[in-house]
Amino acid sequence: MDKIRMTTPIVEMDGDEMTRILWKMIKDHLILPFVDLKSEYYDLGLEHRNATNDQVTVDSAMAAKKYRVAVKCATITPNAARMEEYDLKEMWKSPNGTIRAILDGTVFRTPIVVKGIEPCVKNWKKPITIARHAYGDVYKGTEMKIPGPGKAELVYTAEDGTEYRELIHEFEGPGIVQGMHNVNASIESFAKSCFQYALDIRQDLWFATKDTISKKYDHTFKDIFQEIFDRDYKEKFEEAGITYFYTLIDDAVARVMKSEGGYIWACKNYDGDVMSDMVSSAFGSLAMMTSVLVSPDGCWEYEAAHGTVQRHYYKHLKGEETSTNSVATIFAWSGALRKRGELDNSRELMDFAGRLEKATLDTIEEGKMTRDLALITTIPEPVVLNSEDFILEIAKKLETV
Ligand code: NAP
Ligand code: MG
Question: Is any ligand 1 atom within 6 A of the Cβ of residue 309?
Answer without folding.
Answer: yes
